[in-house]
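Tokens for chain A. Residues wanted.
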């Protein structure tokens, strides 16, 4: 169940008006934007935004867990207060087998639609504030990607928690509080590690006093270790290459005496047929991978039920 109310522009995210003058901010405070309420459940962001004729939304409060599955591995991303959600037109990568978004708690979204665009037309620097917010979010995602590459899982866990605390933490006299409930499985999805490995890493971090689990989340006591930067390895600089069209893709020279239009037409027809077959095979392969993953999960569930049944079975005399 979801419903909509409204909220003032300046209350949606104060950083949106960071580039406006005091007079412009006072005027912008009169603009109201729709606020959409989400109950804890999976939802379709694309359908939600299209229903509101919106191009994006800002999380006002609550939290959203975004999941992408590549093969048997699922990667997670947390989207919280002040983060931006966008309606993208690009199709999902063929590498992604499944993508979903779930509101983990009751969540409010400030919907960016016609009213925001009218306000941006009057105060163009609103777009600058929105772009800056999106850039900060992209930097956090890049840092999370780098954290996933750390060799030690305990370093990944601790670094990720401090990264999240930079956005949603609270500094107290006892330490930095991260008021987010994170299961071991969720932590594993955020840092690219298996749940048992995360459990061991958390035990090590707790034993050395780096963090303490609390009812309201986590208390961070030890910041990630800072080491001297090692000399950078020589990295070949990636660069785009000029596209060189293939000879067969060029239009035939109709004035050439030895031109063979039938061969050219046959070649084009063959390429189009191969392209169509490739797309069909790609779709079939993706469906097959979905079936294999579903079968593996069913087998794992049956094994779990058999183990539980064996434990409950009373041994015969």
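Reply:
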């Amino acid at each position: 169940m979801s419903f909509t109310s409204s909220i003032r522009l300046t209350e949606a995210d104060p950083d949106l008006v960071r580039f406006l003058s005091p007079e412009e901010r006072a005027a912008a405070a009169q603009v109201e934007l729709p606020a959409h309420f989400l109950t804890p459940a999976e939802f379709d962001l694309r359908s939600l935004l299209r229903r509101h004729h919106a191009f994006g939304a800002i999380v006002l409060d609550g939290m959203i867990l975004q999941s992408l599955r590549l093969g048997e591995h699922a990667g997670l991303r947390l989207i919280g207060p002040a983060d931006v959600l966008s309606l993208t037109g690009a199709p999902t990568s063929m590498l992604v087998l499944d993508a979903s978004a779930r509101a983990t708690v009751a969540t409010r979204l400030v919907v960016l639609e016609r009213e925001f665009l009218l306000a941006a037309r009057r105060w163009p620097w609103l777009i600058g504030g929105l772009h800056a917010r999106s850039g900060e979010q992209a930097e956090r995602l890049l840092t999370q990607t780098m954290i996933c590459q750390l060799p030690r899982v305990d370093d990944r866990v601790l670094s990720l928690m401090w990264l999240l605390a930079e956005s949603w933490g609270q500094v107290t006299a006892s330490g930095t509080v991260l008021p987010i409930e994170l299961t071991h499985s969720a932590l594993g999805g955020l840092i690219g590690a298996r749940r048992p490995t995360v459990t061991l890493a958390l035990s090590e971090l707790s034993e050395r006093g780096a963090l303490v689990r609390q009812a309201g989340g986590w208390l961070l006591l030890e910041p990630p270790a800072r080491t001297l930067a090692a000399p950078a390895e020589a990295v070949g600089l990636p660069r785009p290459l000029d596209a060189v069209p293939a000879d067969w893709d060029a239009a035939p020279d109709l004035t050439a005496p030895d031109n063979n239009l039938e061969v050219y037409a046959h070649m084009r027809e063959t390429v189009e047929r191969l392209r169509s077959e490739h797309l069909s095979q790609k779709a079939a392969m993706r469906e097959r991978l979905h079936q294999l993953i579903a079968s593996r999960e069913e087998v794992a569930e049956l094994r779990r039920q058999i183990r539980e049944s064996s434990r409950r079975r009373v041994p015969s005399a």
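The chain has a mean pLDDT of 85. The two ends are 55 Å apart (CA to CA).
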